[in-house]
Specification:
Blueprint: H1 2-6, E1 15-18, H2 23-28, E2 31-34, H3 40-49, E3 57-58, H4 62-66, H5 69-77, E4 81-82, H6 94-104, E5 112-115, H7 123-137, E6 140-144, E7 154-155, H8 163-174, E8 179-183, E9 188-197, E10 201-203, E11 208-209, E12 212-214, E13 218-221, E14 226-229, H9 240-261, E15 267-278, E16 281-288, H10 307-316, E17 328-334, E18 351-352, H11 355-363, E19 368-372, E20 375-378, E21 381-384, E22 390-396, H12 399-411, H13 427-440
Parallel strand pairs: 1-2, 3-4
Antiparallel strand pairs: 5-8, 6-7, 6-8, 9-10, 9-15, 11-14, 12-13, 14-17, 15-16, 17-22, 18-21, 19-22, 20-21
Helix pairs in contact: 3-5, 11-12
């Protein structure tokens, strides 16, 4: 987002509140401050300090959005904020999402049950309820009700495969709060991200996210190991009808949230939605109240409109369709050795040298973008932190060309033990998705 804003012809000044000294944000910002937990009150004080110079606030992470950062900054400082209000931020509760979808788009809602936390736990009664649910659903998916940064979801056959291990996984989440159990859906997934001026919802091209840690979609869920988009609005395994149905479902949810949270409550990137193409039609996996990471990195680099102008249009209620270059994009993340449970043992920081990668990007004519992630700049050196370290986006005339550009940048990053998924947007993975989607539709 910061890089997209900085490309504007308006002579932008950025004031960035960050979890750490992210090297790209530090380089782009007129003023940069570290607020490690992105505490709403501290971020608001940073905005107050610079209020005379700030035209609007753009929010990326979900926790401050759910925590009401827009309500605080607009209410106290009068600075417009581009994100949903806390009342409109349905990402904060998966059970709230399920009930909302059940109300306005029941055909897209997988069967589910919410397990609230109400005092002491009767283990025997709980087991009987869960066993009954297994008898009804067959295989299941287990999700923490609250924010989990894209992690914490357990899937039958991957993270547990019998009643004992299912119950153990369930209890690991239930000990921390409410849990949602859903019927597992055989599917192919895609995501749509939307921008809004709180009057209309504008879709962006479909993106495929790679949530699992390891090649072949194995291992635990992560925040996202990479993603890709094709040259147009849809992905190779999608039909146009999938995109149109996804937009139609999103508009139903958008209108329902507006009716409950109030007029003007859904500005910015108010929703990105994960969908499942199934034999029983399109299902909604989740509704998020922000842009996706890494999905947005497949979208903003090819946005042909001035992003600052887009933001002002979202504020004044004049947002219309957006223009995207007819390019494919592939985003690949490098992550630390311990990420996703790949390597046991304690986390250790790694010094990361981006100079070769950034030089390659500067020579690429705009076809490579380098986005440091969970990385800290200290005394001129970059150090990896616990989460995803750096993302390299390739931009090409086709998916494979974009993939090779992304992998070329990844190979140019120097950092001992950093690793990545090698099958993101691969021909083999895409072909498998195409075959699976056809089978789900009953096609040959």
């Amino acid at each position: 987002m910061a890089e997209a804003l900085s490309r504007s012809g308006r002579g932008v000044k950025l004031f960035v509140a960050d979890r750490q000294r992210n090297p790209l944000n530090v380089r782009l910002a007129s003023e940069h401050v570290v607020i490690s937990d992105l505490n709403v009150r501290e971020v608001a004080e940073f905005a107050r300090k610079n209020a005379p110079m700030i035209d609007f606030v753009l929010v990326g992470p979900e926790a401050p959005i759910v925590g009401g950062i827009r309500d605080v900054i607009e209410g106290e400082l009068g600075i417009p904020v581009l994100c949903p209000t806390s009342a409109a931020a349905v990402e904060g509760s998966k059970s709230k999402q399920r009930r909302l979808i059940e109300k306005v788009a029941p055909e897209a809602n997988p069967p589910y049950k919410v397990f609230p936390r109400n005092g002491s736990v009767d283990v025997d009664s709980l087991k009987r309820e869960l066993w009954s649910l297994l008898d009804e659903f067959g295989e299941v998916v287990v999700k923490p009700d609250g924010l989990a940064s894209g992690k914490g979801v357990g899937v039958w056959g991957d993270h547990f495969s019998d009643r004992a291990s299912f119950f153990e996984y369930f209890m690991s989440l239930y000990s921390q709060g409410p849990v949602v159990v859903e019927k597992k859906i055989d599917c192919e997934e895609f995501s749509l991200q939307f921008l809004s001026d709180s009057k209309r919802l504008i879709p962006t091209p479909a993106v495929r996210d790679y949530k699992r840690a390891f090649d072949g979609d194995a291992g635990p869920n992560t925040g996202g190991m990479g993603s890709y988009k094709d040259t147009g609005e849809i992905l190779p395994f999608m039909d146009v009808e999938d995109f149109e149905k996804g937009v139609e479902l999103a508009n139903r949810i958008f209108r329902a949230i507006l009716s409950e949270a109030g007029e003007g409550s859904m500005r910015g990137f108010p929703m990105y939605m994960a969908y499942a193409i199934s034999s029983d039609g399109l299902k909604i996996f989740e509704v998020n109240s922000r842009a996706g990471d890494p999905e947005v990195m497949c979208i903003l680099p090819v946005l042909e409109d001035d992003f600052v102008e887009v933001c002002f249009k979202m504020l004044d209620g004049s947002l219309g369709p957006l223009r995207f270059g007819r390019k494919a994009t592939v985003a690949t993340y490098l992550v630390p050795p311990t990420y996703g449970g790949r390597q046991p043992g304690p986390f250790r920081e790694i010094e990361v040298d981006l100079s070769e990668c950034e030089e390659a990007a500067s020579r690429s004519g705009g076809s490579m973008k380098v986005y440091p992630g969970s990385m800290d700049l200290r005394d001129g050196k970059n150090f990896s932190l616990r989460s995803r370290t750096v993302c390299v986006v390739g931009i090409g005339d086709g998916i494979e060309e974009a993939r090779q550009i992304s992998l070329g940048g990844i190979r140019a990053v120097r950092g001992s033990g950093l690793w990545h998924r090698s099958d993101i947007a691969s021909r083999e993975h895409i072909s498998k998705s195409v075959r699976h989607a056809k089978a789900l539709r009953g096609e040959r």
